[in-house]
Amino acid sequence: MHPPHPHRLDRDRAQLLVVDIQEKLLPRIDGHEAMLARAEQVIRAALVIGVPVTVSEQYVKGLGPTVARIRDAAGEAPRFEKLAFSFCDEPACRERIESLGRPQVILAGIETHVCVLQTALDLLAAGSTPFVVADAVGSRAARDYDVALAGLRSAGAAVTTAESAIFQLLRASGTALFKRVLPLVK
């Protein structure tokens, strides 16, 4: 058996980082309701599957806290406030990512062309593989979103969807784990 492709998610090597889905910024994101639903879906599935979840918050004083739906979905997942756009530029945040020992970092959140992009590029530079969930990230302008995803692909990030990421983490149907996650993707 050959080793899996590096862009195939493995639940034992993956973690989820939820980037800055905050009260004052979310309503300004293009297609924010659909994006929020997919982000919530990925969070809930990750927790059932056993993938560690981390939540970041950018400048809470100005952008408000993480929205209630994401806070509720993430439960006890640790939250980190940051001022740097890249999660990796904050020492405590970078330490969290590294301490989990899981080199595949699934990214959901906002904005695609700012914090998600800079975090993904820094993860690549550090030897991790970012998996950007295209339908669970967003920007205020569609052009910024499109250009950011294209740039991330060309830089070596994996770009996926919420459902694809979830099914990659599950690997097979017919298991007890699959049955527990299935209601989240129906």
Can you walk through the features of this model?
- Helix content is 46%, strand content 19%.
- With 186 residues, the protein is α/β, with parallel strands linked by helices.
- The protein has a single domain, classed as Isochorismatase-like (Rossmann fold).
- A six-stranded parallel β-sheet has the order 3-2-1-4-5-6, sandwiched between helices.
- Helix 1 (32-49) runs parallel beside helix 3, helix 1 packs parallel to helix 7 (162-170) and helix 1 runs antiparallel to helix 8 (176-185).
- It is globular, with a radius of gyration of 15 Å.
- The model has no long low-confidence stretch (mean pLDDT 96).
Draw up the topology in text.
Layout: E1 14-19, H1 32-49, E2 53-58, H2 60-63, H3 68-74, E3 79-82, H4 91-99, E4 104-110, H5 112-125, E5 129-138, H6 142-155, E6 158-160, H7 162-170, H8 176-185
Parallel strand pairs: 1-2, 1-4, 2-3, 4-5, 5-6
